[in-house]
Amino acid sequence: MRFQSAISTISAATLTLFIATTGAAPTVTAADGSPAQALKAREFLGNIDVQQACDEQIPVKTFANVRGGNGCFDWKCFEVGTAGNSLPDGEFPVDMDKFCKTHFGDAARAECGGGGRFDWQCHN
Questions:
Q1: What is the pLDDT of residue 22?
Q2: Distance, CA of 75 to CA of 91 (rounded, Å)
Q3: DSSP 33
C-alpha cells in the first residue's frame, strides 16, 4: 500500500524521467492487486435540448429558462401562466440525465463540459 500511495504523488516530470531511463511505463494496478482496466474514451452522443426535456418531463406546459445565473445548473422548467400572462405559475427542476437516457439509452449520461448554460451534452 505504501508503494501505491507513493505512485499517486509522483510528478509528471518524475514519471517522464522514469519512462525515459527505463524504457517502460510503470504498471498500474487496482486496489485488489489486479491489473487496472484502461479507461474508455467518452463518446459524444448529442446536445441536450432543454426545452424538449421540459416538455417530456413536466406534465404541464412549460418553458425552459435559467434562474439565478448563467451556469449549467441554473436551468429550470417554468410553468406557463394560466391567466394569459407571461408570469410563471410554477418552477420545476429539469433532469438532464433522464433526457440522455431517454434519447440515447441507459448507458448515456449528461455532462456540462464548459460550465456555461449551453454546454450540456450527452455522452456514454
A1: 55
A2: 10
A3: S
Q: What is the largest CA-CA distance in the chain?
A: 75
Q: Contact, 89 vs 79, CB < 8 A? A: yes
Contact 7, 26 (CB under 8 A): yes
Q: Which residue has the cell 460550465?
A: 115
Residue 17, CA atoms < 13 Å, CB-side half-sphere: 5
Q: For Cα atoms 33, 34, 40, give the angle at the middle one, nearest 5 degrees.
A: 125
Same domain, 96 and 115: yes
CA distance 97 to 120: 10
Measured CA to CA, the distance from residue 51 to residue 57 in angstroms comes to 10
52 shares a domain with 32: no
pTM, full prediction: 0.63
Number of domains in the chain: 2
**Alpha helices (H) along 9-118:** 12-22, 50-57, 96-104
DSSP result, 59-95: SS-EEEEE-SSSBGGGEEEEEPPTTSSSS-S-EE---
Domain residues for 62?
A: 44-123
pLDDT (average), residues 91-97 = 94
